[in-house]
Amino acid sequence: MLSRRWLVNCALILVIAVLAFASFHFGAEPGEKSSPRISSLQADDIERLELRADALHLTLQRDGDGWRITAPVDWPADTANVERLLSILEIESSAVAELADVDPQAIGLQPPKATLQLNDTTLVFGASNNIGGRRYVLIESRLYLVPDMHLAFAAQGMPGIVDRRLLPGRYDISALRLPELEIRRDSEEQWQSSRDATTTQKQLELVVGNWQALPASRILRYAGDAGAGEPIEIQFADGQRIDFLLLSTQPEIIIANPSIGLQYHFRANLYDQLLAPAADA
């Protein structure tokens, strides 16, 4: 005799096929009632987020400036990307089964592909199904099939969720020691450089501003090669500092922040705007 779980799993496959067929061939009619959202949680109510996937474990906290990574490092997050992750709460889908009626291992829930904890609610990501591009997600005891877009984004870890700027605007820079020059703010809040007077205040402001505003084209994990790179020291008004490393200027600029284990990539033609204003500019 066939077990109940086997029958439920077969039924789930049928449900996926029906959902894929319906979404492809039929659109919602005007006035048609939509499915309920998979959670009653609202993204604006989420204050704490915890993400686990394989060796990855990230904790984030909402603050007055948006979102901040609090573990394994303390660093600003890209609020837009966190909101993209939270958009899973807006998905409309009815539950397809109860956990007690399925084999968790057969659909990738044991062990899970990833878990996402939002405040006190945990979402467990299971296996994907090629039919309709959907993934099993468990919330409390209910199993849902959702569009498979959030896990791949979450699995990027720190590079995918960190703020893409070298020093997000909340940092009050007082000095930059770059490979070719030093830029320092004086008592009158003007920027001075170790170069001669041909470097204008506007040029210095541009360099400092780009360290706080220019997003990297991509961010990767820092390999941490010993002795590699030219040192860059950034000092803040409160006396603290952060040490970066200039790893490359061609074919692209690569600046590493060893303290958070990431390296930021920029186009090579941004050298004058990040590292040294052109002498004849």
Radius of gyration: 25 Å
CATH fold description of the largest domain: Immunoglobulin-like
Inertia-based shape: elongated
Distance N terminus to C terminus? 83 Å
Number of strands: 17
Q: Helix and strand succession? A: HEEEEHEEEEEHHEEEHEEEEEH
Q: Could you tell me the strand content as a percent range?
A: 25-35%
Number of helices: 6
In helices, the fraction of residues equals 10-25%
- The side-by-side strand order for the widest beta sheet comes to 4-3-2-1-6-7-8-9-5
Q: Give the count of structural domains.
A: 2
List the helices and strands and how they pair.
Blueprint: H1 4-25, E1 48-53, E2 56-63, E3 66-71, E4 75-76, H2 79-86, E5 97-98, E6 114-118, E7 121-129, E8 134-139, E9 142-147, H3 150-154, H4 158-161, E10 173-177, E11 182-185, E12 191-193, H5 201-213, E13 218-221, E14 230-236, E15 241-248, E16 252-257, E17 262-267, H6 271-274
Antiparallel strand pairs: 1-2, 1-6, 2-3, 3-4, 5-9, 6-7, 7-8, 8-9, 10-11, 10-14, 11-12, 13-17, 14-15, 15-16, 16-17
3D architecture notes:
This protein is an alpha+beta fold and 281 residues long. The protein folds into 2 domains: 4-160, Immunoglobulin-like, CATH 2.60.40; 164-274, no CATH class. Helix content is 20%, strand content 33%. It has helices spanning 4-25, 79-86, 150-154, 158-161, 201-213, 271-274; strands at residues 48-53, 56-63, 66-71, 75-76, 97-98, 114-118, 121-129, 134-139, 142-147, 173-177, 182-185, 191-193, 218-221, 230-236, 241-248, 252-257, 262-267. The strands form 2 sheets. It has a 9-stranded antiparallel β-sheet. Strands 12-11-10-14-15-16-17-13 form an 8-stranded antiparallel β-sheet. Strand 11 (182-185) and strand 12 (191-193) form a beta hairpin. The termini are far apart.
